[in-house]
Each structure stands twice: as structure tokens, then as C-alpha cells.
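To whoever picks this up:

The nightly regression suite flagged phenylalanine--tRNA ligase as changed. Nothing in the input moved, so I suspect the structure step. Input below, exactly as stored in the fixture:
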Amino acid sequence: RRVLLLGEGNFSFAAALCEVARATHVVATCYESEEEAAGRGGAARSIRRLRDSGAEVVFSVDCTKLKEHFLPGKREFDRIYFNFPHCGRKAGVVKNRQLLARFFHSCAEVLAQEGEVHVALCNGQGGTPADQPRREWHNSWQIVAVAAGAGFILSQVHPFQAETIEGYKCTGYRSQDKSFRVEGALNHIFTRSTAPLCFTPVSCKTQLGSQEVSFQVPQVLVDKINRGFLEVNSSHPVRTIKEKLSAGLSQALPLQNISSCFPLLHQGHPDGVCPSNIFWITLSPGEAPSTEKTFQGLANAVLFSHFGQDTDKNGQEGCPIPQQFYLRPSLLPHAQAIIKKRAFSPGTLQVLSGPVFRKCRVAPHSMPVFHEMLVVLAVSRGTENSCIQMLVDNIKTTLNSLYQGVSAVKPSIRLQEATSFGTELNDFAAFEGQLGEIQHFLWVGTDPDPSGSCVGVIRTAPDEFKSHELVVVSASLNLDLLAMLLCGISDWRMLWTRDRRFLRQFPEGELRLFQSFSLYPPSYVHDVSFWVPDGEEFDEVAFHTLARRVSGEMVVSIQLRDNFQQPGTGRRSLCYRVTFQSCDRALGCREAAEMQLHFREEMQQHLRVTLR
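Regenerated output under the current build:
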């Protein structure tokens, strides 16, 4: 391992490091010349110790131009230390921010891919919640935001315990050979962020009835199609939870995993679902099936391929015509198709699982794509209530066991009748209500929010799927939301990160409490005001979806700040506050500002609003 130390005052830290890190090649540097550095108390002795131990000592090194000081073969360092950086004398926070910004850009040129940058700052300087007391943001060095501009994320923060470093003495107060207070100082450890995603257009093939068709994936979903989280070789927590739930359910009843590849596309319009919540799809040129082939191919899939009716000028129904295509928002129609064909065994649990797609507002638990687990059971008429209770008790037992294994916390899991809820449902539950009547909601919560989130719904099949002897009961579970609650993941976007540090925390499908590798990510707030087209209802879901697409899911919050109607003209103006923040990669202020400008341009084009 090669370690670079910058800004050494009297080289006492470097000398102490050499004593405890024998297998490490240390390169200790300072900004001053050798003559100036040797004049500091104890520096000459520390320099001799370093050289005797085989370390390199280099003088007159500018931390903002590191590439210039090392030959190409010796530029890659596994760790870079910069303890208590400062511009010198009475330099203010702005100049020190600028110093750190240039330093981090310089580090990016000499740091190994898996390397770390350690920066120790006095208490309060960093501007993160780890500082106690915490300074006001404008009066801090804003180290996380500054580092983000160079592609680094804050991965750990530890107290800088000077008293444990044998022989260490801080020096350099106002560029003098004087010590300064380091009580409460913090060591900030930065790592490289993954590179920004390049959202190039992606085509996807899927089965539509008996035909294979291709379509262009909506840009907001480009990095979420065909990720394979539920595949056999996956160690993703979403798959682990699905397997654990299936194993628990199989203890009560025979269970069959229906592994057929369900088509991503449906045709027509899902009954009762708001069009704004659907990802509508246009087939690639030359891919649209003929009307005759479409009807033939969809003969066995009529339940999820809804058709409109062609009407004449008198409003009389004529022949059916194919409607639009859309990404499946639920696996329920596939289950209904199985039920209608009687392709199931009464008393056997049928389990379907896969990703589903729904447009929704921006919120930490609102997901435009998630993995649904649908459990279907046909039971004798009159026993459906006891079967529902059996399903819920089994799910409760499994979840309690998982919580005990992950965090030793006993969760609050409850079943509540749909009629007892008002408007406090999350987006998942609200959308499920559009798909058909719900009997019960399944809620899971833990401290500090024991009220929890709705993670599942339970319903009985509509009358057309019932027989005189049998009733079909189904339970739909949001596996992604369960993974978040179980593993302590606060932001749904983390489940989809391409940073390998996420899956490393879940080896061989083991469930653990997640430790974020990106601490205190900076956020950037921008306001946008606009006039709504006269006589039109503003589609807020489309507004949120556009923000997701333009930012690459970097928008974490959208709040309505003002709703103004102009006297006399009646024109309506809206003002929203948009907050940009990444949960897994570096996001600098300049990149966020560019996203906001692009968002404003796209709003005018796609939402037909007039910016103010």
C-alpha cells in the first residue's frame, strides 16, 4: 500500500504512522522548503526517523497540483492524508473551501480506484451533522459539497484522537510554529463515487401474446429494466426476502412458484387506473403487430389486454379495436388469467413475482418501479376469512423472524380493514385501490415510526372469477418496501444503485442492517414558478415524472410553495421547490444547477407551461 501525507507541519504524524504501518510505503510531504520545515520544533528528528524507516520525504509539494510532483509510475496512492488543511494566516471559509476544491480535484488524478482520502478538520469546520456543535452552513467549509464537485463521497467520519497518536504534536496555527485546539476534531474519509449514468436510449424485447416485439424503454426506467434482482444467482435483498417469505408460506400449504416469463407490456387500458399513473409505450417502427395477429396472439391473454369499442356516429358499439400499449403496473392481471383458465390447484399457493411500473410523485417511499410478490390461493367458499388470517399470520411470523435476525427489533405488523382508512395511504396502497376492491391492508412499522408503511394488500377475486364452490384470495406484497424497512434503507433509490458497495453488504443473500457508504449527501434547492395553460388541469404526476427523467432520479423532494390566481384574468400560477440530492453518488452544485436549467426547458416543451 502506498500512502501520501500532505501538509505535514513537523512530520510527527507521518513518523507515528511509520511506526504502526510497517508494510506501508509512506510518502510524507509539506508545502514549505526543507530549510523552512526543519526549523519547526521536532521536525528534523521526525524527518530522520522517516528516512531511517524507508519512507520518502518530499518538500515544496502543492496539494492542488499533485500530478506534477510524481512520476507516472508513482502517482497511484491507496490513501491520502491531509490533516487540518488551511490557506494560512487569517484566511476565511471561502478561501479554504476553494483550497479543498482544488485539492480534491488534484486527488482524483493520483488516487487508486478503491483508494481513500482522509481529511481531518477542527470541530465545526466540516459543516456536517457529525460536528457538535454544528456551524451554520454558510459559515462552514462545506466539505461534502466541495468534495462532490470532484467526484468524491463522504463514506466515514471518525473522531480525530490526537492523544492516541504517540509523539504527535499539531502545529501551524496561523502559519506559525504554534499548536491549536484539536478537541472534537473529526477525520473525514472520502471515496470515489460511481460515474454519472449515461442515459442512452435502450430498446427492450418482450412477448406480446404470441409475438415478440421491441420498444424503447422510457428514459426514467433505462437503468431499471432487466436488472435481474429476482434471478437465481442474485444476492439482492429483494430476492432474499421473496425466498424467505416463500419458504415460510410453504410451511403452511403446498406452494408453486410460477416462473413463466410474464410480458412486460399490456395492451389497451387498465380498468379503473388513472392514465397519469401509467407508462405508455410506443412500439418500435415496424414492430406493431397486425390487427389479425394481435387478436389471435392475445386470445389467451384477454384479461390484461383490454380493448376499446369502435363506435359509430350514433354511439353504437362496433368491432373492437386495439388500444395503446403500456408497461405492466401489476401482476394481478396475469394471476387473473391463470384463474380464468382454471390453471391452478385448489389449496395450493401460487406465487408470481416480478417488477411492475407505476408513475408516481417524488418521495422516499414512492417507487416508479418495484418488485411485486403476488400470492394467490383458491379456497372453498365460506373459508376465505380463515384463509386470509392464515396467510397474514404466516407472513407476520416470517417477518418477525427476519427482523429478529437483522436488527433484533420486534416490528409492529398489523392487518387493517380497507374501510377504516382515509387518505393516509402511501402511493403503493393508493394505486392498488385503483386495480380493484381491497379487503385488507398489511402495515409494517418499527421505532421511531411504529405506524409504519403499507407493504401489502389482500383482496378476494371479483365475482367473474368466483365459482359456486371456490373463492380466490390474493395477497400483493411490495418486496422493495419490505427490503427498505427490514434493512434500514431510507431511500428506495439505493436498492437500484450500481455501486458494488451496496451488494457487498449482503453476501450470499444474507440480510443485514445497511450501512450507507455516502454520508450526509449535499442537497441543492431550486424554485420554479410558471403559468398553467388556461382551462387545463395541471398534471402533477407528469411534473414529478419529468423531474425524475431530467435529473436521472436526483430529485429527492418536490413541494408546492404557492398557488396563485391572478385577479381579473383568472390565470393560475404555481411555484414548486425542487430539491436535488443523490443517495449513492457525488452530486455537485454545478451539476444540480444544470439539471434545474434542463428541467425548466423540458417543462415548457412537454408540460406547455409558461415560465415566470
